[in-house]
Amino acid sequence: MVKSSPRNRMIKGNGLFFPILGFASIVAFIYLSFGDLLNVRYKNEINMSFVERNGTNFVVDGKLFYVNGWNSYWFMDHAVHDHSRPRIRAMLQAAAKMGLTVCRTWAFNDGDYNALQVTPGQFDEKTFKAMDDVTEQKVIALDYVIAEAREVGIRLMLSLVNNLDAYGGKTQYVKWAWTEGVGLSPSNDSFFYDPSIRIYFKNYVKTVLTRKNTITGIQYRDDPVIFGWELINEPRCITDRSGDTLQDWIEEMSAFIKSIDNKHLLTVGLEGFYGPKSPKRETNNPEFWAADMGVDFIRNSAPSTIDFASVHIYPDQWFKRKSLKGKLKFVADWMHSHIEDGDQVLKKPVMFTEFGLSDQNKGFDPSQRDQFYKIVFDVIYESAKKKGAGGGSFAWQFLVEGMEEFNDDFGIVPWKRASTYMLITQHTCRLAKLHGAATPITGNIKNICNSKCSCHMEMLIDWTYYNSVEFLLVL
């Protein structure tokens, strides 16, 4: 949790805050006077190529590409409103200074506040162009997120629906079908097998993939700033523990996406549990319950339409009695097991698309989170040294100042703790040195890797400026 603000430290320090505030006032005035013009200029676009897969590795322009990434699920939601929109650029620019390469974020909000999809199938051209409509505001918000990422040079992994209820999720699709009298069952697992709901979801997916960005003029399916698509966040289908229902859905939906967009990478969005027929269910799963979630890491990741496998890491959510030492040992074993699967069975990259350690644990200290991050980074690095299947990792989650209400047990402002900041940037630098790997395109890697204290101080100055502008915009 955030305990203090960089703004307060600047006031107590050498007096830099006040001239910065004066400059911020001018910037705020320009923004308020000419904001509509500023929003569409985007002159500093960075040339990007699509990320591709070559066996167990990601490649860009023929060079190996390793992901040091993070989650900021909140981008699209915050892009809707003027007062919160600057947070997207602030987070992207901060990530660029750490050499981060990909952000995973939501490309869905189904029937919820600021919904992108208010009702199923309501995405025609008239809806897109209705500037005073809440739905149109939300679509433009996603356009904005993608355009901002392109300008900064950060790629995006976009998730298309939630297994959980947050932001609508599969439960909202089931409610829609049930309300319209076409639903087969009120069970939220009917999302995976109800023909009407499958049509709803396909219509949504097609609309997103073929969407022409109103800022850049590029269709989403043609935009290399998008690293790839994720079918669903953390799918589970406990009403069919055999896994057949979910597998059928994955195969149909992944083939459908590839029929529309064969340029981008695609993953499922799994937590990584081994199913009831897997020999690893007893030796590598967190506990016995994990084999009964209707999923199986190997089977779900195997279709040719799935380009890379995805895994999550939440040791303190999966175990209630293990010590910290035991949890950290599990993390290393869990990662090694899945990378081994990628190397030997799937022949595909494996990405750890969420990893987090709760600050609600008894006796929690931030140094424990640093230990956890270091293990994740070390395992990825060891795999990368051997050109193995460990393609990268995404911390859950990164925030900026003033977002306490959007935090959970796992969120951090990474530059608030120097040791965490250094862990992240050091991981960037050692990955960039491997095998002539593609380096972050957001700036000079030498500046990131050779700087020790100056980059952290620069971050604090930037944040004082950002908070000043945000405060004035609210007024």
Automatic annotation (TrEMBL):
Name the UniProt record assigns to this protein: mannan endo-1,4-beta-mannosidase
Keyword Hydrolase: yes
Domain Glycoside hydrolase family: 49-398
UniProt subcellular location: Secreted
Keyword field contains Hydrolase: yes
GO biological process assignments: polysaccharide catabolic process
Main location group: secreted
Transmembrane portions of the chain: 16-34
Entry's EC annotation: 3.2.1.78
GO cellular component assignments: extracellular region
Catalysed conversion reaction: Random hydrolysis of (1->4)-beta-D-mannosidic linkages in mannans, galactomannans and glucomannans
Domain of life: Eukaryota
Gene3D superfamilies: Glycosidases
